[in-house]
Design a protein that fits this description.
single chain, 132 residues, 19% strand, binds guanosine-5'-monophosphate
Length: 132
């Protein structure tokens, strides 16, 4: 069965899209741990990130870098952190987490409330700065 991320990639489930090319997509995490929390996902459906072929893993990191640059420009965090866990969705992905202050709790267990309107606004702000 297709993963939830494959359904998003196919356009069967909506998302707040940040960027997309032939091989990757980035969209806001639906249950963010910070405003602008974004997922970078290779379109090829592989569960464990370290099972990605080397070239695809490299491309995923380069795509993530471009998304981080766009987050940094638009939302101006101290920097953008990354988390790789993959315990919930069996489709490799990288969490891109804007870190706004040094004492921020950067944990996937630390969900924050972000309204739908704010998610839309943030997605527009970040995507406007993406240059692939
Ligand atoms: P992990 O697999 O790394 O533990 O986390 C998966 C992440 O995917 C979670 O942070 C969760 O909020 C996010 N997520 C799960 N389902 C959806 C969805 O349908 N849409 C979006 N945008 N994010 C999702």
């Amino acid at each position: 069965m297709a993963t939830i991320f494959t359904k998003i990639i196919r356009g069967e489930i909506p998302c707040f899209k940040i960027a997309e090319n032939e091989t990757h997509i980035a969209f806001l995490d639906i249950n963010p741990i910070a405003e602008g929390h974004t997922l970078v996902v290779p379109k090829k459906e592989i569960d464990y990130v370290f099972d990605l072929p080397d070239d695809l893993l490299g491309e995923t990191m380069v795509f993530a870098k471009k998304v981080a640059e766009a987050i940094d420009k638009s939302l101006k965090p101290l920097r953008t952190g990354v988390i790789v866990e993959g315990l919930e969705v069996p489709h490799a992905h990288i969490h891109m987490v804007p870190i706004y202050h040094e004492r921020q709790n950067v944990s996937l267990r630390n969900k924050v409330e972000v309204s739908r309107g704010k998610m839309e606004e943030i997605a527009k702000q970040i995507s406007a700065e993406v240059s692939l």
